[in-house]
Amino acid sequence: MWYNLYIRMRKKGQVTAMKAVSLAKVPGKPTTGGTKLYGNPDVPEVFEWPSIVDEDDIYDLAFMGQVNLYELASALPENSLPKEGMLYFFYDLDAMAFSPFDETAARVIFYRGGKPLEELCLEDENGNSLSSPVVKLEMSAAAEDNAEGHKLFGLPLGYGEEKYPRPIEGWVMLMQIDSTAKVPFEDNGALCFFVEPEKLAAADFSDVRVMIVPRK
Predict the structure, then answer these.
(1) Architecture of domain 2-213
(2) pLDDT tens for residues 48-65?
(3) For 48, which of 91, 123, 159, 183 is 20 to 30 Å away at the CA?
(4) Which residues of the chain have pLDDT under 70?
């Protein structure tokens, strides 16, 4: 069964929990392909930046971060994701995602690896970078699944006995990006990406939902 792939997976209320991996901010510039928040993604030569069609306009999603799966395997060897490659996280900053029903508010792209990566910069018409300042991250197994801060897996910020709405009832929290001084979310909360457990086990990120969880 797919749930045998997970470490200490269990149901708590309405969210399925996996052992959390802490993403701690560390000084310095990330290496190409390293795990990071913000800045610009390190991508293969052929890469399509995810966008949204809104009436007659097309606009790009904001790059929120990337996770090096080799680094994840080192921090949490038993995780069920591939042991190499990258996950890229994108989000519609205008979404105000207080519920997970918007299917277009976020995208997670899985790249299996094997080709060189280069930084891809998104700029405005004047050549100015549209990215937020990059944050280098270091992974380690978190002491608590409900720990605050940036993390992979575990439980959402302030998790208690909330009844999370469909479609994320029973889903796994893939990543939590906490508010910072430079990139705050509404109510000083955290941006949480969710995926179905079966799709996570299959490395299928075609339907990832996002929700801003406020601080209590």
Answers:
(1) Roll (2.30)
(2) 999 998 877 888 999 999
(3) 183
(4) 1-15, 160-166
- Quick one: pLDDT at residue 142? 81
- Tell me the two tokens of residue 151: 């993390």
The pLDDT value recorded for residue 161 is 55
Read out DSSP for the chain? -GGGGSSS-EEETTEEE---EEEEE-SSPPPTT--EESS--EE-SS----EEEETTEEEEPEEEEEEEHHHHHHH-TT-SS-SSSEEEEEE-TT---SSS--TTSEEEEEE---S--EE---B-TTS-B-PPPPEEEEEEE-S-TT--SSEESS--TT-SS--PPTTSTTPEEEEEEE--SSS--GGG-EEEEEE-HHHHHTT--SS-EEEEE---
User: With a threshold of 0.85, does the pTM exceed it?
Assistant: yes
Domain boundaries, the chain: 2-213
Tell me the two tokens of residue 35. Answer: 């795990």
The pLDDT, as a whole number, for residue 1 is 28
